[in-house]
Amino acid sequence: MNNFKVKKSKNGVPMYLIPVKGAKTATVLFIFNTGSRYENKDNNGISHFLEHMFFKGTKKRPDTATISSSLDSLGSEFNAFTGKEYTGYHVKVTSSKIKKASNIIGDMLLNSVFDKDEIEREKGVIIEELNMYEDNPLMHIEDVFEKCLYKDSPAGWDTIGTKKNIKGFKREDFTNYFKSQYGTKSLSFVIAGNYSNDDIKAVEKIINQFEDNKFKNKEKVVENQKKPEILAEYKKVDQVTLSLGVRTVPAGHKWQAKLKLLSIILGGSMSSRLFIKLRERSGLAYFVRTTTEFNSDSGYLTTQAGVPIEKAKDAVKIILDEYNNISQELITDKELKRVKDMYKGKLNLNMETSDEVANWYGRQAILHKNDITSPKKFLESINKITAKDLKKVAKSVFKDENLNLALIGDVKEDQFKKVLKLNK
Predict the structure, then answer these.
(1) Could you tell me if residue 328 is inside a domain?
(2) What is the pTM of this model?
(3) What's the domain range around 367?
(4) Which one, 134, 144, 157, 295, has least CB within 10 Å?
(5) Facing residues of 191 across strands?
């Protein structure tokens, strides 16, 4: 499975080069070590807004239509994403189009004009995006859960920002943030797929145009939870969307692979414990999933579900019972093998596509820095995990004082205080 090389550009930017055997495409990814955790109260939301503005016009390509048609004409897939700790811009093309696609992305990132009229127009677009998230509890529950975990801090703020901030941003805010957060100190470059040495030389010319940036670092997460926490966001809807989870460990920690397996056992597939318990046996939910999130200095595991209002407490109890069971009893060899095989199979399928490979390395370039793990090496660590390992980790993270419950619906926090505890 994909081996990788790292080289430094002349201006010091790390370039991750990952050939994908048999691929006819390549994905180019420019990823920056900045996101909503690098913001303050006054500019919360600017990382995401700025991501939008890179698609609004450059000196050479004056508007969105010109940029998008240029990329469309290459038969490419292109997009961008903003997270808490990184912002990425990627394009996937047939191998013969790498240079042209890279030049367009480079032009966007180096020469965007941040037109005042475009900024004003885009405010309406982003506010509608915010409304979309808030109107969809399954999309918004992650924001509420992170607010429950990290409170009124950059780690707990919504990536998209507030309506007040969005409406108030001016061109100067974007140019100042760009100068601070976009440059050689924050950029990593990834190319995955079928590419040539000439492609790498052409891309490096683009990378060498990035200048040294001031770079403002993020506020670190301080983990000091002493008791279970609950946060309810009122919404007049017919069901309750909940997220019940625990604090875990940062990216790159030796428990990361073990926690990934625990999440799959609990709610990572249609054969998982909580999918069977909550949906198939209890009929309490259509949507059930357990996921993990690993940041540079923090992490969590959580189970999300949409359940009837009157059955919300029962759903919380079922999830807690499974958290308790997995920390008290060894899983069987059969279940462990099934989960490992499922994870390995899905990862192998993902690593056949250049965009998934690029994302694998790009996120690690930001979160792991100098400790990049290849898919092959990660699968080797998965193979070594035993049932005893999983029980040990589960016992360490599934504790009363580590529990966090976020809710969206016609409910109140007081209704859940008595049930938010593990029965050990």
Answers:
(1) yes
(2) 0.95
(3) 229-416
(4) 134
(5) 17, 28
